[in-house]
Amino acid sequence: MGIINDNVNLLIAFFIGILFGGMLEAAGFTNTRKLAGVFYGYDFTVLKVFFTAALTAAVGLFLMHHYGLIDLTQVFYPHTYWLPTLVGAFVMAFGFIIGGFCPGTSFCGAVTGKIDALVFVGGVFIGIFFYAFTYQAVFEKFRNSTFMGQVNVADWLGIREGVFLAIMVFVAIGSFFFANWVQKKVNKNKSPEELEDLGL
Amino acid sequence: MKNKYLNPYVAGFFIGIALIAAYYFSGEGLGASGAFKRFVIASIDAVSHTYAQTSHYTASVVKNGNPLDSWLVFELLGLGFGAILSAAIFGRLEWKIGKSPKISNKTRLIAAVIGGFLWGIGSQLGRGCTSGLIMSGMAVNSLSGYIGLIGVFGGGYLIAYFFRKLWI
Amino acid sequence: MAMKKTDLIILGLMALGAIWALFLPNVKPHIRYLDNHEILYKINTKERYLSVDDVAKIIMTKNPGYILVDVRKPEAYKQFTLPGSINIPLDSLFTDNNRKLLEQDVYKLVFFSNGTSLADRAWLLSTAAGYTGLYVMKGGLNAWFNDLLMPKRPSDIAPPQEFDLYNFRRGAAAFFTGASAGEEASPAKATVNITVPVKKKEVGGGCE
After folding, report:
1. Does A190 touch chain C (CB under 8 A)?
2. What is the pTM of this model?
């Protein structure tokens, strides 16, 4: 790790972005019906990709820290403001169910020709502009409320991080098997055309 | 033509690698809404620098120089590039409106704007979107990441039924 | 939809990593943030206070269970400080090195300053962040001088405990000032090495 020249840093960001975007598109996340599938039971790709990514990183970083490859006490660590985060997350949930994208996937969709994604991206900008101009008057105080510090979820639950990670990974793996079962049932009577249309 | 996609676990695994690389090389996680935010701030700054310096929302970003000179912005550019590459390989580079056959194009596009708008507000309130808040948060076992996870996915499941007509 | 071989390989890797992680220690030691009620309670009980007499005893008996922490600026520390104390100015309280001192639980820390308020502030910040085993020398160095080193003779009708205290203080004053040939607390004296937080066997010995 250590200090990296600023410009090299940005270049690295670009290449990491390429990997990220490439994998998102390859997994099919420019297709909104495929994305929404996790909420309706016909396609659990989102669940699989998301948890695999987050937990691979979590376990990987944790192991790397232990063996001195990275110092996790020196990286950016999120500050927890639990209420605005929860409320914001609910708003985002509405955005997901109605719009069928999140900002990252919508950008990928937009650049690969999906017009609905392009429109979605426009919506995100409008939303942020709206927020920017109403921030001081409306959102600022709320957004800065309920600060808890830089809280580690394992600490907060009172268990060791290693235990927490192990539990999460096994819960995730279990959920993958369960998801497969649900998906099979939900799609049992669908025709091949329907399935293809859904993005499967 | 059959839809051809990369194995979701493989894709997830490599996104996890990207996330690790992000933390390793640059000390911060992945993100998307943050880049959008900087584009907005950059435009506000271009129109009126004085306003940008005084408004609470923009001030902390503009005082550190060009809003676009940021890790997240370059990451987002890479995101687009990678998506184009993959779409080209898989043959998915085409103009299209992704939607359920049961709704009209107009409905879909209106829903997309509304959805985007909600993400605009929600991601700012919540300090990130799925990648920035949840995935990057979970990668370091941050409570905020898990709150986001429960809010977005839990919330989604709660309201999915009421909007099912959009999808199935 | 069944699991393919590739799927199982990746899931297997994750499971392996998780089991491996299971046995590893936390990234940071467990820090518990106190809520307002707990902090207020701790402030009100005043359990944290040690008197100058207590601290004098600690020094005189060379009690190994305590570390005295001067929270004033380095210039004040160099001018005069308690024998054997270390200097952590208030604004350096939470640097990485000093946090290790707060995190360890072998030694108890006694914060002191000229009066009580600066030391109290150090105590409050550390306690609110969840650290324990922290104390404050009530009255600070002012009390050290005025009460301990220059004790006032109690009136003739005072109870015996006051006389005991007075005599103790006279003894302490002699100890500290009599032995003070060259006792301008040299900062170099007080580097405590905390790298091995193993409980020393002597700690239970106390005064014997």
Report:
1. no
2. 0.71
